[in-house]
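Lab notebook, bench 4. The sequencing result for the construct came back, and we need a structural model before the next group meeting so we can plan mutations. Quick request posted to the team channel:

Model the 3D structure of this chain.
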Amino acid sequence: MSNTVIVRRCEEYDREAIGAILKQGMEMLQYRPSGKVFVKPNVVFAFRSEIFGGNAFTAPPFVGACLSTLAAAPKVDRVDMGENCAVGMPTRLNYKHAGYYEEVKNVRSHAPTPVGIFCMDEVLRDSVFVGGNVHDNLRISRKMARADSKVYLPKLKGHCVSNMTGAVKLNIGICSDDERAIRHDFLLNEKIVDLLTPGYPDFIAMDAIDVGVGNEAFPSPRKLGLILMGDNPLAVDLIGSRLLGCGPENVPYLKLAIERGYTPGAIGDVDLVGDITTIEALDKHAERIHPYDDEFHRWQDVNKELDRLKSPLRFYFGPYRHQPPKKCQTGCVMGVKMFLGSMEKFAGAEAFAKANPVVMVVGRIDETIDAKGADVFLIGSCAKASVVNARKIKHFDKCFTTASDLNLGMAHKLGMPSVTTNLSTMLPIVGGMAAASFMKLINGRYFQDISHFMTKHLERRV
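Done. Here's the predicted structure in token form:
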């Protein structure tokens, strides 16, 4: 581990050029992969790119170049790539729409060692010790837990609650849905830092050729033309945050990691090498993704976006507790942002202006809300409000409430086209879920989970 971050210019997704850059980066950082190598890309969402866009995941040529480079290393026995996508979407469906299966097939055709791809939500898990503030133990995929080396391929993007997502936050995807939901609330950043214990990569290659701005699941692409490499996730993310115009003080999980003692603690402690070697040159290059306009911060402020869309939807956001008053920025409100961001992509901006005047509430609201005959949705276990003149009140008594929960339980009430009411989008999702369930059965994952519940979870509850 070092504080060195290699910054290389790369304007296009050219596999040969990317492969050469990655090979040089591994040599400079003295990373010599051997044995079984686990590779973790960023695939939070990849579905119907003609509707939702195709910039939320690590680009397939970038992934393919890395897999080929690793497979060609002299002491590597096999390479396995795994991911668990956003809650509610089967990973195998995201892989298909991202083009990963085809990419891996192409790599296999010339790789001297076996290259595999698997869905973390479908395979057996091993329990690993964490000893953190949120997790004492965590069950991660067996292929990751037993790997000799870990390589992370984050996509540099903005984020609706963390301002950025990079190498450190990539660890959310090592959790299966049952443990991913644990403390995905006001303790999310504590959880993310905990995950550095089982998920500390040996080599990082960040896809910053086209970065994503706005909502992380449906970002707008902007050309930056860079590849970042390192063996310290904090160092890589410090440089990434600078490129996105925010320092660690504005990225909650980076700030917390530094407070817990992870280093480097400041961007000045990072050693820049490669094509950009100074912070001044880094800032100059970052101007390529300016301006920091409304698109850059899309769906970070829900009411601002509803005003932009001239929508009759109303959103109230209060604290989850009163003493001291504090809002949860990383739980249900994140689900709302993801849900509404997906609705804009699917239904279009014009549909928001014609939507039903639905009221959404996250947290505790002291003022009396006049629903004016509209449906009211209390989102999250802590949601509470005095409501009058409501047609109907529904409470999502869940912490946290996901975008998938809102799609299934609320989308049909908005009077807008939605994924859940469209057969062409729902059928592939349902088919992907069915296939994932079948693979869980075949792989013995269901039996393993039942055994864990009977021997561990029930005992703990008693």
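The first helix runs from residue 15 to 28.
Will bring this to the meeting.
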